[in-house]
Amino acid sequence: MLPFDVTNFFATHQDLLWLLTVAIDLSLTLLLYRLFGKMGLYTIVILNIMLSNLQGPKLTVIFGMETSLGVILYSGIYFATDLLSEKYGKREGQRAVLLGFAASVILVVMVYISLLFLPSDTPKNAEFATNIHQAMVTLFNFTPLFVFGSLFAYLITQSFDVWIFHYIREKTQGRHLWLRNNVSTISSQALDTLLYAGVVWGPIVGFWYAIELALAKYIIKIIIALIDTIFIYWARNWDMSDKDWNESLQGKSIKSQ
Question: Rounded to 5 degrees, what angle do the CA atoms 149, 220, 79 make?
Answer without folding.
Answer: 75
